[in-house]
Each structure stands twice: as C-alpha cells, then as structure tokens.
Amino acid sequence: MSAELTLSELAQLVDGDIIRGELSVSFGSIASLDEATPDDISFLGNKKYFSQFLETKAGVVIVPKELKDGPEGVALIGADNPSYAFGLAVTHFTKALSRRFEAGIHPKAIIDESAKMDPAKVRVHAGAVIMAGAVIGDGTEIGPNVVVGEQVVIGRDCHLHANVSIRERCLLGERVIVQPGAVIGSDGFGFETVKGRHVKIDQIGIVVLEDDVEIGANTTIDRARFGRTVIGEGSKVDNLVQIAHNVQVGKHNFIVSQSGIAGSSRTGDYVILAAQAGIAGHVKVGDQAMLAGRCGVATDLEGGRKYGGIPAQPLITHQRQQASLRKLPELLKRVRALEKES
C-alpha cells in the first residue's frame, strides 16, 4: 500500500482546514521547511521560522489556522497545533514505511526456562538475556543485548531497545518504550557513614513504569530503598536523566535531558522539567508546575505556576533579576563616577 497522501487525505488525517491547493495532489514524504521539495509535507510551528516558510519549496505546509497566505504554489492546511498535526503525518509515513513487528526468538537469545511468554507473539533479538520468572506480554519487542532481570513483568506492546537493563522485580505497564542504554531498577544511592566508612544500605524496592511511559537513552531510574519508585502513566523522560530512589513522578510529566530528581521527591500530574532542572530530596512539586532550564528546587512548590532560578522562584521574578544583573556593570561605572565627584 502506498504511503502517499493527497491534500484531501492529509487534511482529514490532521483534522485541518484546506486553505488552498488542489485536493487530488499527492505527497510522498515529510521534510523541514528549508529542505522540502514539491513532493514533501512540512509545517510552520514557530514564528522564528517564518522566513524559511516564505522561501520553502514544499508541496504543502501545515500552518496556524489564522495564516491565510504563503509562498506562491505551496498548498496550505490550517491546524490548531501545526507541530502536533505534522507529527500525525510523520506517524503515517513511519507506519507505512518502517519494518513491521515480526514475532520470533533469536537462537542467540538466552531465556530461562521459567520465563513466561508466547514465542509466537513476542520478538527477542540476539544477545538478549531474560532471567528466571520474568513475564513478557504479547506484542513486546526485546532488543539486542537487553537484560531482563528475575521476576520482571513487562506488559503488552512494549519496546526495549538495545542494551537496556531492567533489574529484578521491576514492573512495566503496556506500550512502554525504553530507549537504548537506559537502566531501570539500579540500586538507589543509599549509604550511611559508620565509624568513618560509607556502608551500603540495601535497596530492596522496585521501579514501576506505568502505561505509555517512554524513557530516553542512557537515563537511569533507581529502585526504591523499599516500596516503589514510580513513573506515572504517559510521562515522557528524556535522555540522560537521573531519577533517584522512591521518587514518585505523576502522570503525563515531561522531564527533559540532564534533569535530576533526588530521593523521595514527588511531582504532580502534567509537570514539566526543562533541561538540567534539579529537584532536591523529599520535595513536592504541584500539578502543572513548569520548571525552566537549570531551575533548582529545594522546597515544595505550588502547582500551576512557572519557576526559574536557583533557588526556584516565580519565573517572572527570576527573569527580572537576570535583566537587572545585565545592567550591573553600567551601574557600577555610574557609582564609581559619583564617588569620584563627591
């Protein structure tokens, strides 16, 4: 079946309005505004790229609904959220062109005889190790060199990419994606200093990744000291993130690259941590809070607000302080000049 979409089919797929263009003209791929050809679908999701939009050679561009004109010869589809609409087009081409799921267990996979799965409904690649008592749901794909620990339970339609490690007894819901190199269930960083020596405290809890969670490459999520470290339903965790023992991440969070959450902290639902944000231990962040890049959280934060700076404060306050700091060299010059005059 062809992956091509006519203008009419594309508008229906993305729930958009055709602003201009021939309904029967078809498009076979997707591209950025500056690289697109007349066979491509592109989008304008940020006004910073408006100059590229004016010069694009794309066949069709998905634009904000309020935009009514564009480059000559380029078809336009209006959408409430052009970036999301473009994502639907990307998904269409990905599904049409990518390799289909094919069940089967590679002969070089190592699977304990007590592990439970239906070989006709899962895919296990070469080098994967599945230990005693593990349970693998139908439709799940275990990538090359993945290690699934003892008594791990993985739900339906999950995808563990190459070199992922899931340690013993951890639980993964349905449609969970774990990108290459991530480690789920490593020991929490728990030590007590006794007579001048750091003594390791056993970490006997687990990690739970609820349904539709995605974990980025080389991210690490520590098992609880006891109980559970939980990543809530629908949350998306970027690459190179560290989440410590007994953390409770709410539903539909976004946690962006190089962020860190220390032990026993909690985030509510729909919380966003921008890149390199950090949350100290035993802190609560309320629903729909947004932490700007490199924000440092040391105390509980109310939900529904934007924060920035170290320590975290309302974002507008942080921005005003930063603006004032940029003026400091000139102010110092003026103070010195006044001191000389006095």
UniProtKB/TrEMBL annotation:
SUPFAM superfamilies: Trimeric LpxA-like enzymes. It holds the Pfam family Hexapep. One of its GO terms (molecular function) is UDP-3-O-[(3R)-3-hydroxyacyl]-glucosamine N-acyltransferase activity. It catalyses: a UDP-3-O-[(3R)-3-hydroxyacyl]-alpha-D-glucosamine + a (3R)-hydroxyacyl-[ACP] = a UDP-2-N,3-O-bis[(3R)-3-hydroxyacyl]-alpha-D-glucosamine + holo-[ACP] + H(+). It is an enzyme of class 2 (transferase). The active site is at H245 (proton acceptor). Keywords: Acyltransferase, Lipid A biosynthesis, Lipid biosynthesis, Lipid metabolism, Repeat, Transferase. Residues 29-90 form the UDP-3-O-[3-hydroxymyristoyl] glucosamine N-acyltransferase non-repeat region domain. Its EC number is 2.3.1.191. The keyword Transferase applies. Pathway: Bacterial outer membrane biogenesis; LPS lipid A biosynthesis. HAMAP family: LpxD. Homotrimer. Catalyzes the N-acylation of UDP-3-O-acylglucosamine using 3-hydroxyacyl-ACP as the acyl donor. Is involved in the biosynthesis of lipid A, a phosphorylated glycolipid that anchors the lipopolysaccharide to the outer membrane of the cell. Belongs to the transferase hexapeptide repeat family. LpxD subfamily. NCBIfam families: lipid_A_lpxD, PRK00892.1. This is UDP-3-O-acylglucosamine N-acyltransferase. It comes from Haloferula chungangensis. The gene is lpxD.
